[in-house]
Design a protein that fits this description.
single chain, about 170 residues, alpha+beta, Alpha-D-Glucose-1,6-Bisphosphate, Chain A, domain 4, 2 domains, seven-stranded antiparallel sheet, 3 helices, about 35% helix, elongated
């Protein structure tokens, strides 16, 4: 027969192993996803909006995520990459799909925050105006979900960027 102390030690060791495995699973970072869409009616033609969106080197003039010192590669359009600051090459955007006057798809990466984003801009004629549908999908490594406040903040950032884009285009007489 086994000694009661040995059985107790084995049971305690098994319990500690199970507890460690359980905590390890909870603490492990899992990819999370956040998706949302915003639709905007803009007082410009789809071609005007497309020309502004396809040149990432101009985004600093209206998008809060870019700075005046961002560095772009290539010509505007497919394959253009912009690094969002002059010193930090950990944040970048790249145009991965471009359909003339209709759609742009961008992938953005923030290696600092472990976030990968995909933005898709669909442009539709709406009379003399343009209807812009902006789809965003963020994939990130984080132990917990985005809060409702953070989701609301991201939607507000979309609205502010579009408002600044319209103001930029109006002041530049496009």
């Amino acid at each position: 027969m086994l000694d009661l102390g040995i059985l107790l030690a084995i049971a305690l060791a098994v319990l500690m192993l199970l507890l460690t495995l359980s905590l390890g699973r909870r603490l492990r970072l899992r990819p999370r996803r956040l998706e949302f869409t915003s639709v905007h009616c803009l007082p410009f033609s789809p071609a005007t909006i497309y020309r502004e969106l396809e040149d990432l080197s101009k985004w600093w003039q209206w998008d809060g995520g870019a700075t005046q010192y961002c560095q772009a590669t290539e010509q505007p359009g497919l394959g253009q990459v912009v690094f969002l600051s002059e010193k930090d090459f950990m944040n970048s955007r790249e145009i991965v799909q471009a359909w003339h006057d209709r759609r742009l798809c961008l992938i953005s990466q923030s290696l600092v925050d472990s976030v990968t984003g995909m933005d898709q801009f669909d442009l539709f004629p709406d009379g003399a105006f343009c209807r812009l549908q902006w789809n965003t999908r963020l994939e990130y490594l984080q132990a917990r979900q985005f809060s409702k406040r953070r989701r609301k903040s991201l939607r507000k950032e979309h609205d502010q960027a579009i408002s600044q884009l319209v103001n930029h285009l109006k002041t530049n007489q496009h």
